Every structure is written in C-alpha cells, then in structure tokens.
Hints:
With 427 residues, the protein is an alpha/beta fold.
Amino acid sequence: MNIHESEKIAGTLQAMGYVECQSESDADIIVFNTCCIRDNAEKRALGNIGAVKHLKKTKPELILAVVGCMTQQDGAGLNLRQKYPYVDIVLGTNNLSELQNAIKNLKNTGKKSVLIDPNERPEVKEDEIKYRTSGCNAWLNIMYGCNNFCTYCIVPYVRGRERSRKMQNVLDEFKSLIDMGYKEVTLLGQNVNSYGHDLNDGSDFAKLLQEISKINGKFRVRFMTSHPKDLNREVIDIIASSQNICNNIHLPIQSGSNKILKLMNRHYTREYYLDTIDAIKSKIPDCGITTDLMVGFPYEEDGDFEDTLDIVRKVKYSSAFTFVYSIRKGTKAALMPQVPPEVSKERIKRLIAEQNVITKELSTGYEGKTFEVLCEDFAPKKAGYVCGRTDSGRLVTFKGNENLIGNFVNVKIYKSQSASLFGDVEE
Ligand code: 5AD
Ligand code: SF4
C-alpha cells in the first residue's frame, strides 16, 4: 500500500518536472512517506527526517515534505512542526493530492503548509497513475480505509472508513495495466473481502474477481489483505477455478487464542479460522498460505502463546510476518495491561524458530518439481541470475539474463534453502 502511494507521489513530482536522483544530497525535494503501524516504523521515519536536517544548511532551497499515516495521528502535525521546524510541508493521508499546490505555494510565497483533513470518509479520487516502480508487477487499489477497529490497530484512525472504488473504474485500470504489458497485478485494500459493501450497487469482492478472471491475456492476480471473518467460500471457489488468480492467500490470524482474538476484536475464533483453512486446502491443494502473527498482546499468557504455536503447526504457512505488539496511542488496547517486553521478546524468538522449521519443510517439498515462474527481476547480489515467484508466491532464483524478465518460464527446483528455492529453466 505504501509503495503504491509512493508511486503516486513520484508521479505527481514527475508531472511537475522533477526527475529521480540516486542520492539525498542531489535532491531538490525529499518526500517522506511515513507509516505508524508500529512504534519502530514511526521511530525510523523520525530518524530519517532528522538525518536530512544538515542538507538544508548547505542547500536552503531543498524542499522537505512529510506525508502518510504518521502525520494523520492526533496532534502529529503540530508535533512535527515543533520538533522539525525545517520541514516545509506536512500532509495528512487525505491531503496527498494537495502536494503539487503546497510545493508551488512554497516556491512562490515561501509559505510552509501543514494540511491535515480529519474527514473519515473523503471522496475516492480517480487519478491516473503514471509512475510505477515494480517492474512487471503493478499495484492496484480497490478500496481505502478500514471499518474493523481491531483494538491494537491505528489504521482506521489514520486511514478513515472503508471506501471502495467503483467496479468499472477498477476493471478499466486493470485492463489498461494488462494492455501496457504488466504481467501481475496485486489488488490492494486493508480488507479486500469487504470490497463494494459501501457502494450499495451489488458490487462485492467475489464479483470483482469473477470479472477480472474474464479478462483476456496471460497475467497473474494477487490480492491483499483478506480478513478471516470475511473470506467466504465463494471467493475460495473463484480462486480455485480461475487460471489467472494466484493460488496464494494472505490470511492474517494474529493470534491462535480465542481469548486474545476476542480482546483484539477480530470477530472469529480459531475453530472458524481453521475451517476456512480446511476449505482452502481442499479446494486449492497447492495454495501458498501466509499470515501475520502478533505476540505480547495485552493479557497474553503462556497458554495463549502456545495456542498461536499450535495454529502455526496446524496450518503450515509458507511464510509469516511476525510482530511484537506495539502500543498505539488512541487504540483500545493501549489502555489494557501490557505484557513485559522480555516476555514478548522470548515469545517472538520461539515463534520465528517454529515458523522457520515449517518454511524449511515446505521448501523441501518443492525440490525436484517444475513450476511456472514469472521472472520478475535480477537476483539480488548474484550476477547472471534472475528471480521470480511461483503461482503460490514462493521466490525462486535461477540462471538467466534480462531477456527472461517479465516472462513466464518453467523452472525445475533442484535445491531449497529455508525460504529460498533454486532452480533451472526447462527448455
Ligand atoms: N503492534 C504490532 N503489530 C501490529 N499490526 C497492526 N497493528 C499492530 C500493532 N499495534 C500488524 C498486524 C497486521 C499487520 C499489517 O501489522 O499483524 O496484520
Ligand atoms: Fe487494522 Fe484490523 Fe483494519 Fe487490518 S482489519 S487494518 S488490523 S483494524
């Protein structure tokens, strides 16, 4: 979501005549697109903003802007202005479209701006995205915001309520991406399964996927993120029957304990979640299932954590994003009694170790088999090699050159190393 938003920002700057440069010291403008989902994301953003202060001394005309979720928090705009007075422009999540005017205003009048609109349901803007940075993969927003208010999460406060784009607009953008030659499109939304509910015109996620799967061409579709309470059987059936929709589902469980799930306001139980996993596995046997897991949520006891480990063993995720719970001011969980950090630290170590065993085991299962891989890029730090993903979302590295990038190739896996797969192209 943030990468795609940064593409939109870069597009705005490009339209104004700016070009990309490689080093901060060469820049005429630096825009920090921030995230505040956890404390460390926020600290990193603030650290990076602090680290460019010296550039302003040697180049006073350098423009510094801070945008994104962090600025939208209560009082964050004023706070930034006081602590980082050398920042020129601060824009909230609803004000991003004002970037061009804010820059022009600054250049013409020297006036700095802090614009933070607290509206929870701003109108969906249909801007054409002209700048994309992810090779043959394109991001496509189908909706914005979230209604779920999980008790740990800041997103609904900084991104507002759910607003879906009209299905025709999504389909038009999708088709134009395929016409432009993109080979993979990832549909984005905080909770893609509730797509369309706010439109009151009969649109929903299943219908959207169905319409997308009717589009001609060889391409892949992924989507994120699904909420376990809303991922229904209809969507699972469409994934199972569609050639183009990848057999890859990101289904964040957060915790394996019913007590914790209730405190998190997640609206499902571990039994309901496991039922959905069973349905996925029976309809889509080779599906890559990934998740988000959190440890150290308030009131989490050893038994609750064991329940999380148990889910990890039962589901066998191909990979998992693992997080230590981080207090977010203004959320319900911030007022609950907190788990000591040393306990959370121990738990996250055990959780990662458990998941690593499973990732390794699943990787071994790929060895000796051939998979269709979309070759996406050069392999990092490995001259003469390229990399891409299987339909199930696993990263594969193989010998090849730039001619393969953007193409589908059959790759036979000869080796795996924890999460990494290595193969050879089959002629
Ligand atoms: N602390 C830790 N992790 C969080 N996430 C969201 N809010 C928090 C928080 N306060 C994690 C959840 C979510 C992912 C995007 O980030 O696991 O699924
Ligand atoms: Fe946050 Fe929950 Fe919404 Fe995800 S579903 S963005 S975790 S409130």
